[in-house]
Amino acid sequence: MGRVIAISNHKGGVGKTTSVVNIGAGLANLKKKVLLIDMDPQSNLTLSLGVQESEQTVYSALKGESALVPINVYKNLDVVPASLDLSGAESELASEAGREYIFAELLEPLRNQYDYIIIDCPPSLGLLTINAFTAADEIFIPLQPHYLAIKGLTKIIEVINKIKKRLNRKLEITGVFVTQYDRRKILHRDVLETIKTYFQDRVFFVQIRENIALAEAPSVGLDIFRYDPACAGADDYARLAKEVLKMEKKMADNTVEA
Ligand SMILES: Nc1ncnc2c1ncn2[C@@H]1O[C@H](COP(=O)(O)OP(=O)(O)O)[C@@H](O)[C@H]1O
Ligand SMILES: [Mg+2]
Prior knowledge:
With about 260 residues, this protein is α/β, with parallel strands linked by helices. The protein has one domain (about 5-255): Rossmann fold. The chain has 11 helices and 7 strands. The chain has helices spanning about 15-30, 45-50, 60, 90, 100-110, 125-135, 155-165, 185-200, 210-215, 225, 230-255; strands at about 5, 35-40, 70-75, 75-80, 115-120, 140-145, 170-180. Strands 3-4-2-5-1-6-7 form a 7-stranded mixed beta sheet, sandwiched between helices. Bound molecules: adenosine-5'-diphosphate and magnesium ion. Adenosine-5'-diphosphate binds near residues 179 and 211.
């Protein structure tokens, strides 16, 4: 059974989509079978991977018009694309019975076909994010090293706790990491320390540095490893993917202890 990870932060521009693409590609490079899912109506993940428009999207699946149909991106990396009409899904599904579980049910047949399923969440905490959290085992939160970065998380933590209580008991925040990091800046180092005090061992050792290649790669539809394998961004995401993989061992050890 694969790990299902939602990458979420209701703040936009913190590096969610960049991290879904490049943690996913990093894990695929480590011979894992990876599925990425675009839950954001802005379709940034779909566009970043250079995937063509498709009839079968997250939206058509949520509406009951298709299954979740993965498209192969590159070797063992697949994606279920989004489309702009996904923005209508929240209101269209609002009165459906069991509306929080629609995506979890759709994901069920895909769970054991992949080692990793990584969901790119929209920058909000509406029904799409709730569907992602109901289906996920884990949440990763990317943060920019700004003042108040943690204060803004009160809301998402509240939502996660409610979902844990009512819809998905196994859900946990298992990874928090800093993106667009510049260790020469005192503010960035200070914020990282605050994040470590708050989230403790759930903070990844790796920080993602500010690196222009990470911002360029989506324009040609490539992940960072195919765009510029020698850049700092490729190095950081390769190390982050290894850290994600290593968690498997830690989790297995904890299961034995329990
Ligand atoms: N480490 C980084 N260095 C430089 N630019 C980055 C980095 N991470 C993300 N970006 C750029 O910042 C913008 C926001 O990132 P994105 O991943 O789209 O955030 P989100 O999905 O949270 O809205 C994008 O233009 C992206 O290319
Ligand atoms: Mg995004």
